[in-house]
Amino acid sequence: GAVVSQHPSWVICKSGTSVKIECRSLDFQATTMFWYRQFPKQSLMLMATSNEGSKATYEQGVEKDKFLINHASLTLSTLTVTSAHPEDSSFYICSAGLEWETQYFGPGTRLLVL
Amino acid sequence: AQSVTQLDSHVSVSEGTPVLLRCNYSSSYSPSLFWYVQHPNKGLQLLLKYTSAATLVKGINGFEAEFKKSETSFHLTKPSAHMSDAAEYFCVVSKRGNQFYFGTGTSLTVIP
Q1: How crowded is residue A68: how many other Cβ atoms within 10 Å of its Cβ?
Q2: Bond from prior residue into A8 cis (ω within 30 degrees of 0)
Q3: Residue A110: strand, helix, or coil
Q4: In this complex, is the C-beta atom of B69 within 8 Å of any C-beta atom belonging to chain A?
Q5: Exposed (0-12), middle (13-18) or buried (19+): which is A37, by Cβ within 10 Å?
């Protein structure tokens, strides 16, 4: 099956710094990728849709200036958490589709903001 | 609007006994439905999907689910639980083909 990777898998940062998370589709091209957030013992919440070559589409309640998304190529989308605070600590997961209505999920990135 | 409700936040079964994880959906049109599994500290793995073909869908690891439009349900079943099935299970409905909306998840415990 298709493989989606994320880097880093773990990141710890100080409050006020920015963190960039990469999502790559390793063996296929994806014009659209998705970013999710998962709090401990909770479900995944769709944050935004990342569109190659255009602006991301954010879900209601998600601050676009806080969570910057760049989809510069057909195999890479990045999520930058700007001026991170402890409440941004979470598990961030991306997904990409190879075929219609099948999404492949990355292994996730765990962010801890001190 | 699309949404899914997973009726049980936690299910415990004995090894070798059947598994039933319940999911009800609401959708303004014919939905596509999925079940994903997440093992601790791991990513999500697709178990099976329903996309308006056969209503009984067979997935990996012996799991299957039946789409019942009259009941707006898509329950996940397995005849015999294995210890390795212990994980978090998510029922998902899709919007526009690739925007996924997750249920709250069901944690499955398998008792030896």
Answers
A1: 16
A2: yes
A3: strand
A4: no
A5: buried
